[in-house]
Amino acid sequence: MQALAGSGEGQIVKVKWLELALDDLDAAIDWVGNYDLDTALRLDDNVQQLVSRLERFPYSGRQGRVEGTREAILGNYVLVYTV
Asked: What are the residue boundaries of the structural domains of the chain, listed by start?
């Protein structure tokens, strides 16, 4: 997944999702939902909470493996983003 965030630690920024990232998120939630709907709903909620944190603290994710990116970890998922 990849989301683009604005700049600036300490100020609230707006996360801009790439269409591919939203497609990946939907696919992951649908796949999990095929096995356990409650877990899929929790996954969606946890992603939204993580994104909310990134809006407040965009540099809280670790430095990404690809130059110029950052990564936020959520269980087995990695949200890749730029600031």
From this structure: 2-82
